[in-house]
Amino acid sequence: MKSNQNILVRLFKLGAEKTVWFYSCILISILLSISSTIKPLITSKAIDVGILEKNESFLIQMLVWITILTFLEVVLQYVLILFSNLIAQDVIYDLRMKLYKKLIYFKTAFFDRTSNGVLVTRSVSDIETIATVYKDGILMMFGDILRIIFVLIAMFYENWILAIISFMILPVMYFITRFFQKTLKKVFADERNATARLNSFVQERLSGMSIIQLFNRQKIEFKKFESINSEVTKAYLKTVFYFSLFFPIVELISSVAIGFVIFTGALMLNYKLSVSAGEIIAFVMFINMLMRPIRQIADRFNQIQRGVVGAERVLNLIDSHEELNNSGTIECKKIDGTISFQNVHFSYIENEEILKGISFDVKKGQTIAIVGTTGAGKSTIINLLSRFYDISSGKILIDGISVKEYKLSAIRSQIAVVLQDVFLFNSSILENITFGDKNISIEEVIQAAKEIEVHDFIMSLPDGYNHKVSERGNSMSLGQRQLISFLRAYLVNPSILVLDEATSSVDTITEEFIQKATEKLTQNRTSIIIAHRLATVQQADKILVLNKGKIVEQGTHTELLKNNSTYFNLYQSQFTEDNELVN
Ligand SMILES: Nc1ncnc2c1ncn2[C@@H]1O[C@H](COP(=O)(O)OP(=O)(O)O)[C@@H](O)[C@H]1O
Ligand SMILES: [Mg+2]
Known about the structure:
- This protein is of the alpha/beta class.
- The protein has helices at residues 2-16, 19-52, 56-103, 108-113, 116-158, 160-167, 169-207, 209-214, 218-270, 277-319, 378-385, 408-414, 429-434, 442-451, 455-459, 478-492, 508-522, 557-563, 566-582, and strands at 339-346, 355-362, 367-372, 393-398, 401-402, 415-418, 496-500, 526-530, 542-547, 550-555.
- The strands form 2 sheets. Strands 6-7-8-3-9-10 form a 6-stranded mixed beta sheet, with helices on both faces. It has a 4-stranded antiparallel beta sheet with strand order 2-1-4-5, covered by helices on one side.
- Magnesium ion (MG) is lined by residues 378-379, 500-501.
């Protein structure tokens, strides 16, 4: 509860930052409350003096006032709605910017454990609910409370006996509102959770649709979807159930109250106690006026509640510190590219050590290869070198300086990585290569493409460099995507190049392209090549054989073959495999 209040205070402050709109809204709320409280008083006089005492000119005068006030209210209402929406949209615009700015610096480990669906919900629909805090929430609630206070004062001013009679409904209203408020808070939370589950389910299944279809999992997946879907519907219907129950009950109570007031008023008239027909009618209007804000306060509470739940999630993300520690200060335009791993230990998940004391050195301009079975930890070494994760112990040095002492951006601009699975964005080939960097001209790109001999391939695509890549690059083959990725890496002109199984799943023609590009790319720069096919690593200056997080052998191809152990076995098995394929 306390944290809810803190969040509300924060949201309030964010709104108040929109000074002009915010204070205009407050002023307008005050004016509206005054105006709407005065109207029943005028009506009461109009009836007592204008109608009952047949004072026509007074009656017309009162009607003119009511008309003016009504017109004024319409205009003020309009401005209030407009301004409160402006505040809402402006605040959530800011929040979206803040959140996105945070997200793009979060560390990889954060994305490992947080599903995309959840993040999409946070940055789209949760932020959306925050808007209601402003447009239907705090400002309107302020107006409502003000109106209730003014109406109560006016009632006592008009007739204290009828005022006390009307007051008797207040405790009843209070308890009913409390009850619904508590219940609705719970059902709304359930509804939001169910929606978030639906979001992440759909998101994930859409990404893996081809797997679902390939393994004929449609029926099972559909069953799962059915249950999640019905959960959402149930949760939503529950909110509707309580919500729709609330209004008729409030209506009933106010009707009973009005009945009591008219009855008491009639009795008082009968016994010639101080009351007038105008006053009784004014009280009917007052009770209706009390009911509306009281009824709406519950609604507003729920809107605010919803917004607070959404805001809590969004603000938690905005406040969290999931960025990789970037306190390094060393900026460098160009590095030599010597790499040294010294007894590096690392685990993604606590107590599950993946790298168990890795040590190796790469001299400037050398090409080293890492081989080993799947899951041995090859890619992990690369992840650590480009600091996607931080190590548990040991040292990783580039040019003799710990990677932590460099600025993250410095390290990453010096290391280019070509991964096995290349992600392309849904835009043109050119934009995918330059990432929209206007400093890189198309001529430069073409020049580079010619140098690593992928120009002809790109020109063979419809529209050439302007070829539009469909979502996630699915319209291009893996090998084609890899060539784009090579070009990306080449253009960066990095000091260190990393190829992570870049040739493991491409056809022979593409492999030839890649082979040529690789030769060009590795020239005069430190390179780390991870490869399945040992054919690609034979030329390396040094080969590391990795097994279960440990380097079991290292040396050149010929040296390792002489050893007659792990590498030799790998080589043997692949040699026979390839032979079998040929036969
Ligand atoms: N993000 C991650 N979170 C948890 N475990 C991971 C993560 N990435 C890889 N692993 C685990 O670390 C081990 C080594 O993975 P990896 O370095 O990708 O192997 P390789 O590239 O040699 O096939 C594997 O057991 C894998 O399951
Ligand atoms: Mg790997």
